[in-house]
Design goal:
Layout lengths: L11 H9 L1 H9 L6 E2 H8 L3 H13 L3 E6 L2 E6 L2 H13 L8 H12 L1 E3 L2 E3 H13 L3 E4 L2 E4 L1 H9 L4 H7 L1
Antiparallel strand pairs: 1-3, 2-3, 4-5, 6-7
Helix pairs in contact: 2-3, 3-4
């Protein structure tokens, strides 16, 4: 029996190893809300030296997890795609909570649990409450794993000044 030289499955272990480093995981998590940050800020949040952050960020960019662009004399980083954000969110669901050792950590976690955005959707407790209210008022209806806008919901949102057709066209 011969063994395969090239495994057909995706390299989950390679991505997991990248995300598995605490410094890289912290930097990725700092960008989870869809924002952009310079390397210096990411280094500070991860509690690592700028040199270590640069090495980590190069790996994350090379792997396609982060995208970067210049801004003056520094480089700005962001998650490369919504899929990266979704993967991080999925991992957060099964990960044990980290030990909080500082008030700032506790405050930041509380803010993330309360409300945050991730690319194209509102998340956290606020996101859940808004979704529940829209379902209760029959503005949205469940459609498989997603939600659809009801005709009455479209009228309601249009009456509030929302460009419903423009929103549908942009996702």
């Amino acid at each position: 029996m011969s063994t395969l030289r090239h495994h057909p499955d995706p390299d989950v272990a390679g991505v997991a190893a990248l995300i598995g480093d605490p410094g890289r995981a912290t930097m990725l998590h700092a960008l989870l809300g869809g924002g952009e940050l310079p390397a210096s800020e990411l280094a500070a949040r991860a509690g690592i030296t700028p040199q270590a952050a640069t090495a980590h960020l190069k790996k994350l960019v090379a792997a396609g997890l982060l995208a970067t662009h210049p801004s003056g004399r520094q480089r700005i980083f962001r998650l490369n795609s919504p899929e990266v954000g979704h993967a991080l969110e999925a991992l957060a669901l099964i990960a044990r909570p980290t030990r909080v050792v500082a008030l700032e950590q506790s405050s930041a976690l509380a803010r993330l649990r309360a409300a945050r955005s991730c690319y194209d959707h509102l998340a956290g407790r606020l996101g859940v409450a808004v979704t529940d209210a829209l379902l209760e008022r029959r503005i949205l209806r469940p459609e498989g794993e997603h939600f659809g806008l009801t005709p009455a919901g479209a009228r309601t949102l249009h009456g509030m000044g929302v460009d419903v057709e423009g929103a549908r066209a942009s996702r």
